[in-house]
Design a protein that fits this description.
alpha/beta; Isopropylmalate Dehydrogenase; 2 domains; 10-stranded mixed beta sheet; 14 strands; globular; binds 3-isopropylmalic acid; binds manganese (II) ion
């Protein structure tokens, strides 16, 4: 099959890790007889430098024309980079938020898996990490605080900033449906995370999630408060299967859950709309402090490539081959610096990519 992939390498470590993801995708294409055509696009800081804005209409159109988007990471050091002297709507992150919205990517899937080989890199006590865990965070991605009206103004002589948190029932219903659908293919448990003891949006969230749950009698539903969930993720992460939550809670909890898997560099993500189209990116940031040194962990980007094969191209065997190659390389003891532990072999970003590509 021939497929067209829009590639946004972005800023910081983005280009290095996406190069490795493309290396592995090409290896899968070769093995299974596919052709992947790549169209490289700019977004984030590099687009600001080239075009004066973080996301151009041309880039949006080129993404829409592709079968899927593979992305690295965007943004820079928020205290030192000149990008952060610009008005908020012209900063790198605004480009990513606008792209998600323009493509209607409301469902963000972040699978957090603790590989047995990486137990030593897990920051939790051994009696917790040895239970392992495999959870999927389903983060709502185009609503809530990140997209609500915002402004800063003088009110009675006091400088005041206002962000708005708004959700309508349809936005909640469609993400809840996605969560129950994936739970049916996993361990049939959904934990819906909210702050219903305080927020109206959370009370509506709970009500709609309960309505949706009626269509999935085989799935066990539990509700949990976000503060308590943050605590449970480090106390007993093996209790979770699918976690569904609103945009900001999902942003925060997924970084926490990622660290429990050993490193933010291990966590891929898929952002989907109602069709098979999707955008695939590591959940971690652009890590400007280590950019250009060939030491970043490309596994999150490579696993994002596997998710692209699985969800957008329906290439299950190909995706399995990539995921198994990652497991094999870890089992053989190869590690990038972030997941290094005693007795393992430390390799660079590009070496890690090549090792995985060879094993696909
Ligand atoms: C993420 C990132 C983004 C987000 C930023 C870069 C806007 O942190 O994908 O988790 O908050 O969604
Ligand atoms: Mn984040």
């Amino acid at each position: 099959m021939t497929r067209n992939i829009a590639v946004i390498k972005g800023d910081g470590i983005g280009p290095e890790i996406v190069n490795e993801a493309m290396k592995v995708l090409d290896s899968a294409a070769q093995k299974f007889g596919h052709t992947f055509n790549y169209t490289q696009l700019l977004m984030g800081g590099c687009s600001i430098d080239a075009y004066g804005e973080p996301l151009t209409d041309e880039t949006i159109a080129a993404c829409k024309a592709a079968d899927a988007v593979l992305m690295g990471s965007i943004g820079g050091n928020t205290t030192t980079s000149p990008w952060y002297k610009l008005p908020a709507h012209l900063r790198p992150e605004a480009g990513l938020l606008k792209l998600r919205k323009s493509l209607g990517l409301f469902a963000n899937l972040r699978p957090c898996v603790l590989y047995p080989e990486l137990r030593a890199a897990c920051t939790l006590r051994e009696d917790i990490s040895e239970k392992g865990f495999d959870m999927l965070i389903m983060r709502e991605l185009t609503g809530g605080l990140y997209f609500g009206e915002r402004r800063t103004e003088e009110i009675d002589g006091v400088t005041t900033a206002i962000d708005t948190l708004k959700y309508d029932e349809n936005e909640i219903r469609r993400i809840a449906v996605k969560a129950f659908e994936v739970a049916m293919k996993r361990n049939k448990k959904v934990t819906s995370v909210d702050k219903a003891n305080v927020l109206d949006t959370s009370r509506l969230w709970r009500k709609i999630v309960e309505e949706v749950a009626k269509d999935y009698p085989e799935v066990t539903l539990e509700h949990a408060l976000v503060d308590s969930t943050a605590m449970q993720i480090v106390r007993n992460p093996s209790q979770f299967d699918v976690m569904v939550t609103e945009n900001m809670f999902g942003d925060i909890l997924s970084d926490e859950a990622a660290m429990v898997t050993g490193s933010l560099g291990m966590l891929p993500s898929a952002s989907l709309n109602e069709t098979s189209f999707g955008l695939y990116e590591p959940s971690g940031g652009s890590a400007p402090d280590i950019a250009g040194k060939n030491i970043a962990n490309p596994i999150a980007a490579i696993l994002s490539g596997a998710m692209l094969l699985r969800y957008s191209f329906d290439m299950q065997a190909e995706a399995d081959a990539v995921e198994n190659a990652v497991k094999q390389v870890l089992a053989e003891g190869y590690r990038t610096g972030d997941i290094m532990s005693e007795g393992c072999k430390q390799v660079s970003c590009s070496e890690m990519g090549s090792l995985i590509a060879e094993r696909v």
